[in-house]
Amino acid sequence: MSQLFIGTFIDTPSPSSLSSSSSPSKSQLQIRKSHLLVTSQGIITHLSPSDSPSSQSILSDPSSPAPIFVGGKYEFFLPTYTDLHLHAPQYLYAGTGLDMPLMQWLDQYAYRAEEKIDSDLLLARRVYERLCLRLKQGGTGCVSFFGSLGVDSNMILAECVQKAGLRGFIGKLSMDQSPRPTYGEPSTEVSLASVTTFLDRMDELVSSLPPHERLVEPILTPRFVPTCSDELLSGLSKISKERGVRVQSHMCESADQMAWVESTRGKRDEEVWDEAGLLGDKTLQAHVTTLPPDLISVLKSRGVTCAHCPLSNAYFSDAQFPLREALDAELKVGLGSDIAGGYSLSIETSMRQAVVTARLREGARREGGGAVKVDEKGLRVDWVESLYVATRGGKMAMGLGGCFEIGMEFDAQLIQVADEKTDEGTGKLDFFDLANEEGEDVDDARWTELVERWWCNGDDRNRKGMWIQGKRLS
User: A cellular component term (GO) from this record (predicted)?
Assistant: First the structure.
């Protein structure tokens, strides 16, 4: 079934893409005003100015459905956000215990929450249904989830995500060396058998659906090196290659975690992963706050994706992920909320925090005597680059689209910055000169200004619609 959308479409195809199709704007946004977008089974099949011959042919074709949605003057379609790192069971207690060191916090909060979810499946369903609702409200359409150890609780997570109409990579934890006596897997063999059962059940969950409606898939999830034996990591690597399944974990997160790995394994964190064959183009590693040039080279050559979690890094890491260097090196990078190491589900919060963090890194560099050139960013990252990482960057890393191009999935949110009838800003946004534009088209420079102001102060009240694979969710 085809669907038609007419309006302004804004995306960020690359971190340095130039706008727009009509003029060489200084903006890095790609701004397409008054365009017609057509989908079939949720895939974009046409995107062109609405007055172009090809668009007019579609609009005048009596066999074509009438446009089902027309965006307003101060509304724009934006790709949905991708959250590359979210611990679903930890939503149970998000926003507590953030004053502790990482390893202590894991024992006192994280493991206990996961154990509770596994032992109470009714609670698991309550938590996961509410989590999906909040994700939709926040414009997050694709998530890589860390689950818990239990197969049944992770299947509930998968069912909730699929039913909610969200995209989800569902990760059943693997950990055969748990420091918690009551929460862990007794052996490598049991752990590998459990994850195989999970993969089979995930296949069954979506097997009856047509391919374009299969929104959830499994992702292998060894928690991190301290809880996984070398044998388990090697076994998961074999499963990943045999079944074509993605892998996610934590790497180089904090000083105490990295020191623990070196003291027990006699190797650096990334060396353990690499020797197990778990650094590849289907690998997603969260944090990576230590990123020297040699590691950048390894990650780029292997095609590894990094999930930047600026909020949780501020609480639990001793350094921040070097986003500027990662983007300049053309690494695959997306954003993660890291619930509950980060207290907010909002990827908008993560975007803003990423920019603030990068500016603080640049300030520290200058204080340390780093050279200052007015025409260079140094270590700074701007708001458009953060928008790229939140949308196209994260989605592309997971083998998906993330912007508006023919052949990509139509995953979009409709953002309203102002009411065109009253010229009043929407939500927390205030404008005092929109009335001057009555009857005029909003040009690219003005759109860039409006989008930046939304980026700084917008919230859920600006979101007037959301679609995943062409299906409207809100």
Answer: cytosol
Please state which architecture CATH assigns to domain 2-79+403-472: Roll (2.30)
Statement: residue 128 has pLDDT above 60: yes
pLDDT of residue 22: 39
- Give the model confidence (pLDDT) of 383-400 as tens digits: 999 999 999 999 999 999
pLDDT band with cut points at 50, 70 and 90 for residue 24: very low
Q: Is the pLDDT of residue 1 over 50?
A: yes
Percentage above 90 pLDDT, the chain: 82
CATH 3.20.20.140 fits 81-379, yes or no: yes
Instruction: Report the interhelical angle of 151-164 vs 111-119 (nearest 10°).
Output: 90
User: Residues 394, 84: contact at Cβ < 8 Å?
Assistant: yes
Residue 183 β-bridge partners: 180
Query: pLDDT tens-digit profile of 267-281?
Result: 999 999 999 999 999
The pLDDT of 29-36, averaged and rounded, is 96
Q: Tell me the three-class secondary structure of the chain, residue by residue.
A: CEEEEEEEEEECCCCCCCCCCCCCCCCCCEEEEEEEEEEECCEEEEEEECCCHHHHHHHHCCCCCCCCEECCCCEEEEECEEEEEEEHHHHHHCCCCCCCCHHHHHHHHHHHHHHHHHHCHHHHHHHHHHHHHHHHHCCEEEEEEECCCCHHHHHHHHHHHHHHCCEEEEECEECCCCCECCECCCCHHHHHHHHHHHHHHHHHHHCCCCHHHCCEEEEEEECCHHHCCHHHHHHHHHHHHHHCCEEEEEECCCHHHHHHHHHHHCCCHHHHHHHCCCCCCCEEEEECCCCCHHHHHHHHHHCCEEEECHHHHHHHCCCCCCHHHHHHCCCEEEECCCCCCCCCCCHHHHHHHHHHHHHHHHHHHHHCCCCCCCCCCCCCCCHHHHHHHHHHHHHHHCCCCCCCCCCCECCEEEEECECCCCCCECCCCCCCCHHHHCCCCCCHHHHHHHHHHHHHHCCHHHEEEEEECCEECC
Q: What is the pLDDT of residue 21?
A: 41
The structural domains of the chain, with segments of one domain joined by +, span: 2-79+403-472, 81-379
Residue 17 banded pLDDT, cuts 50, 70, 90? very low
